[in-house]
Amino acid sequence: QSTMSAVTAGSRNTNPSEPHKSWKKINEERKALKRQRKQDKALKDLQRVQDAEAAAKNATEAAKSMKPNPSTVSIAVPGSILENAQSAELRAYVAGQIARAACIFRVNEVIVFDDVGVATARETKRSYEQDAEGNGTATVRSSSLQLARILQYLECPQYLRKYFFPLHKDLKYSGLLNPLDTPHHLRQQSKFRYREGVVCDKQAKDGHSYANVGLLNDVLIDKALEPGVRVTVKMDPPSETTRKQRGTLVSPDEPRRETGVYWGYQVRIAHSLSEIFTKSPYEGGYDVTVGTSDRGTNVQEVPSKSLQFNHMLIVFGGLQGLEEALSNDEKLTVDDPEMLFDHYVNVLPKQGSRTIRTEEALLIALAALQEKLQPQHADIESDLSDLLPRSEDTGVTMRRDVLVSKKKKRRLEEKPESEVDTAETTPVPIPSPKHAPKPAPMHANPFNGRSAQAASPVVDADFEVVSATRDVVKEVTSTANCEDLSRFD
Question: Are 305 and 371 contacting, i.e. CB atoms less than 8 angstroms apart?
């Protein structure tokens, strides 16, 4: 027992030089340490609150100093125009024409609305929205749904389509359509500060994600998002310390606001004519609305730069015009569609055809209204010709003579020198009677004014010109073989 007590005492007092502390002093030290920790935590919380207030203040100042979004132009097209096409290929091509017209004139929103009543279109309605249980919550006409799907497909960059558009019968003939080739459809070799991408399921560090933006390697973005979300990424400048490319998540409006580059359009579906106005995505709705009809006023009478707008809406009618769409809308009580719009114009007063198709009216109206528009916030003018791909980057067909000359040059380069030398030293073989030179024409060329050359026989002539006189005709018919009537054998 004495030995064990000695060992225990030795273990308790390992350092005999330190004085023995009482429990009272130990508790005081613990309380002081706890008090110090509380003070440090309070200081950290105060610093965190001050940082949050400073960040909010900076955000509000940045929002005040930030440039406003440029003014927008929206168009509304009825989905029933696809039903007027004679085949499935033409249905897709009509949708492609609308998408092309929208991007040519820098349209920011395309609205596909149903201009046919519910009673007559119930059998052709199809579900396009599903809740959490998978049940259809909203239905729309099949033609409207196909038009909206093709418009979205063409607007999406090519390297992102496989993520958002699985195989579907509405997109069966989308390969026949002309590409939009808008600026946000960037090539892999293009260098631009903004890119469209999709969040990948690749594992990243906390608070970050990887996004596929059309480059060889994925880009590390500064937000943690679920995979499959379409994002707009602002590319960070390349760093010398790391080879990993990084980017910042930004709003889809920022590329157009900061650089003035057209960044595609949004697609929205409206169930009726009234939903075009009531479900606008812009705050305050559309401030200027324009309806197109052959019963409207002449567009040439509208003064230049008179349509001042921030969010403009241009509505086009279908096969029966806007009058039919108004009569099929149960929520609207007016009888004349002119009462719905600020301006009701006829974009082509002297038309040569009885009807103008909607895809044609789209181009005509947007071209006629270009000089009438006066946006409140215009796009900034910036020279981006060196950064964005130009039209010649898409591939231009070469002329046949250029291709043939390139083939000849390549064939000469690939031919060994021995074959070239032997070809130069070998004598020219004597032509056989089958390949004998062509005889001289029987008569001189009467269209050649030089008499000296006309009298001399021409060996390389491919044809002869015979004077249209009776004597010459008799001579030719007498000397020619009566059994062979063709002179171009």
Answer: yes
Q: How far is Cα of residue 253 from the mean position of the Cα atoms in its chain? A: 15
Report which residue type is found at 178.
N
Spatial CB neighbours of 338, under 8 Å, sequence gap ≥ 6: 291, 295, 296, 344
Cα–Cα dist 489/486, whole Å:
6
Q: Is the dihedral of CA 247, 253, 254, 256 positive or negative?
A: positive
Q: How would you class 192 by CB atoms within 10 Å of its CB: exposed for 0-12, middle for 13-18, buried for 19 or more?
A: middle
Measure the CA–CA gap between 77 and 317, rounded to whole angstroms.
7
> Is residue 146 pLDDT above 60, yes or no?
yes
For the entire predicted model, the pTM comes to 0.68
Would you say 329 and 272 are in contact if contact means Cβ atoms under 8 Å apart? yes
Confirm if 102 and 110 have CB atoms less than 8 A apart. Answer: yes
CA distance 69 to 281: 14
Question: Residue with structure tokens 């935590």?
Answer: 41
Q: pLDDT of 152-183, one tens digit each? A: 999 999 999 999 999 999 999 998 999 999 99
Distance between CA atoms of residues 489 and 473, nearest Å: 19
Contact 255, 194 (CB under 8 A): yes
Provide the 10 A C-beta neighbour count for residue 274. Answer: 17
Give CA–CA dist 146/77, Å, rounded. 13
In the beta sheet, which residues pair with residue 309? Answer: 375
- Which position has the higher pLDDT, 468 or 313? 313
- DSSP assignment, residue 446? T
